[in-house]
Amino acid sequence: MSCPLHPKHAFICLLISFAFFIDPSSQHVDNVRKNQMREKVREMFYHAYDNYMTYAFPHDELKPITKSFTDSLSELGNLKLEHLPTDYNGSAVSLVESLSSLAILGNKTEFEKGVLWLSENLTFDVDVRVNLFECNIRVLGGLISAHLLAIDPTNRLIQGSYNNQLLRLAEDLGKRFLPAFETPTGLPYAWINLKSGVMENETTETSTSGCGSLILEMGALSRLTGDPRFESVALRALRQLWRMRSSLDMLGTTLDVVTGEWLEYSSGIGAGVDSFYEYLMKAYILFGKEDYWRMFRSAYLASQKYFRYGPWYHEANMWSGKPTYWQLTSLQAFWPGLQVLVGDVAAANSSHREFFHAWEKFGVIPERYLLDHQMIHPTERYYPLRPELAESTFYLYQATKDPWYLDVGETMVKSLNRYTKVAGGFASVRDVTTMQLEDHQHSFFLAETCKYLYLLFDDSFVAKRNYVFTTEGHPIQVMSSWHEKLPESYFSGNWTFSKSGAWESGASAMSMKVCPSVAPNSRLHEQHRESVCHVPDQKIDHKCWSNRECGVDATTCRQRSCSAVGFCGLWNPL
Ligand code: DMJ
């Protein structure tokens, strides 16, 4: 099966292509299994959610072992609580984070109850110092996504009246973010006090993801409110970050928002950088601006060239491209999911297998594994119920419909229930070598881990619509009115739908986002499929004088080089 499109549209083609190989008899068996697994995941979600509502709400997160709470909104990013008023009751972060999952699980009553409670009780006029990135992805993203789900008439989530209360809350929060961007560079401070703005002597250090992953939520907020400031500050920060890249198209991990200088030159695809890549690609999908695509493409190619080693990704110095740290980290496991979106399914599959091996070996994934010493990092042995492997598994199953990914999901569900379930919810693992637990159920377990596992086994919620999931797993629909490229005629109303017809079964929820020009009668067999990482050799006969004339291989994403006899190929050993 092959595809007629620009490389950047390749992923839809893969999604369609794989669907032609589904065997109907095995499909029935898969469906039975999927229904059973979906119900198991539903139980998991409610065990986590009900315990939160009973023992922690309206505080931010649940402590499942002691059945108590933590007001972690200001602690997010692992800093200690500061300036917390004694009468502070939290911001119900786990409830905000649960709304889109409740919608996907079809619990309209609980969704509506949550919306009403937040409308009447949530306030951001509190003297609390919060991490901008975390507050953006969890609270702003949670509110915006729930607002969009609430106003989508096809969901019928609200029986009573809904007067955009969640959007008003989001707008209020977004305005409180704005002072963070008032720096000489336009790069935002990492921390902000919701009541008073940037605090005296505030740290000027932040991370690449901290200032490069705000555009989905802030962009959506501008489109919804008509106030351009949110999108404009987020975009300015993103462009500034991109201007600071090295000649190799690489970025560091931490930087100073006042001087605009890099503080940490080593970077990779994991902590501190991960969602920067993700948001360039997803912003292109949601808003259709060519600029996002150009930035993403360059950054992605550099990642394949300088970080990738077979299925693994090490870190590298942004100036020299030389490897620095050889580590597999739990956060990196989102990468295969992103690769599915860009069409590099083969590369996604090979990395995903390595992460799953790690899961099988340890029961869950340790935060950091030292590839060069073949051991777990001595101080990062924990697994805080992270969603990234479930997320990639969901994307890869969407793209391939290979039932092996259902096995992966089943294994994950079993491990989570076996090692992390306690009477009061799900607890993080402090040490994967002993499975000793820690008294914390992070809100992303409700927003992401359970949601992606549920969607793996039942994608009916996304099957006929085009959602982009934020880095916190909150769905935002692709809309023609927000999009620079997709023609109006492509949409039914203002929402997007999969086309009906013979090939619909193969079109996933993600399929229409960047592939508008596919027609059902396309002569798919005669076309050549390309991956986004494919860069053609300079000469059509693949002859070359130097490595510079050779491109990047489409299947492996590896840089080709010029052989002694003058031909481009994958000559360099891994
Ligand atoms: C989530 O808060 C988001 O996915 C974020 O981008 C990084 N990872 C955590 C969960 O692991």
From TrEMBL:
<comment type="similarity">
    <text>Belongs to the glycosyl hydrolase 47 family.</text>
</comment>
<keyword id="KW-0472">Membrane</keyword>
<keyword id="KW-0732">Signal</keyword>
<dbReference type="InterPro" id="IPR012341">
    <property type="entry name" value="6hp_glycosidase-like_sf"/>
</dbReference>
<dbReference type="GO" id="GO:0044322">
    <property type="term" value="C:endoplasmic reticulum quality control compartment"/>
</dbReference>
<feature type="active site" description="Proton donor">
    <location>
        <position position="367"/>
    </location>
</feature>
<dbReference type="InterPro" id="IPR036026">
    <property type="entry name" value="Seven-hairpin_glycosidases"/>
</dbReference>
<keyword id="KW-0256">Endoplasmic reticulum</keyword>
<feature type="active site">
    <location>
        <position position="388"/>
    </location>
</feature>
<dbReference type="InterPro" id="IPR001382">
    <property type="entry name" value="Glyco_hydro_47"/>
</dbReference>
<dbReference type="Pfam" id="PF01532">
    <property type="entry name" value="Glyco_hydro_47"/>
</dbReference>
<feature type="signal peptide">
    <location>
        <begin position="1"/>
        <end position="27"/>
    </location>
</feature>
<dbReference type="GO" id="GO:0005789">
    <property type="term" value="C:endoplasmic reticulum membrane"/>
</dbReference>
<keyword id="KW-0326">Glycosidase</keyword>
<dbReference type="GO" id="GO:0004571">
    <property type="term" value="F:mannosyl-oligosaccharide 1,2-alpha-mannosidase activity"/>
</dbReference>
<dbReference type="GO" id="GO:1904380">
    <property type="term" value="P:endoplasmic reticulum mannose trimming"/>
</dbReference>
<feature type="active site" description="Proton donor">
    <location>
        <position position="134"/>
    </location>
</feature>
<keyword id="KW-0812">Transmembrane</keyword>
<feature type="binding site">
    <location>
        <position position="471"/>
    </location>
    <ligand>
        <name>Ca(2+)</name>
    </ligand>
</feature>
<dbReference type="GO" id="GO:0005975">
    <property type="term" value="P:carbohydrate metabolic process"/>
</dbReference>
<keyword id="KW-0735">Signal-anchor</keyword>
<feature type="active site">
    <location>
        <position position="274"/>
    </location>
</feature>
<keyword id="KW-0325">Glycoprotein</keyword>
<dbReference type="GO" id="GO:0005509">
    <property type="term" value="F:calcium ion binding"/>
</dbReference>
<keyword id="KW-1133">Transmembrane helix</keyword>
<keyword id="KW-0378">Hydrolase</keyword>
<keyword id="KW-0479">Metal-binding</keyword>
<keyword id="KW-0106">Calcium</keyword>
<dbReference type="InterPro" id="IPR044674">
    <property type="entry name" value="EDEM1/2/3"/>
</dbReference>
<protein>
    <recommendedName>
        <fullName>alpha-1,2-Mannosidase</fullName>
        <ecNumber>3.2.1.-</ecNumber>
    </recommendedName>
</protein>
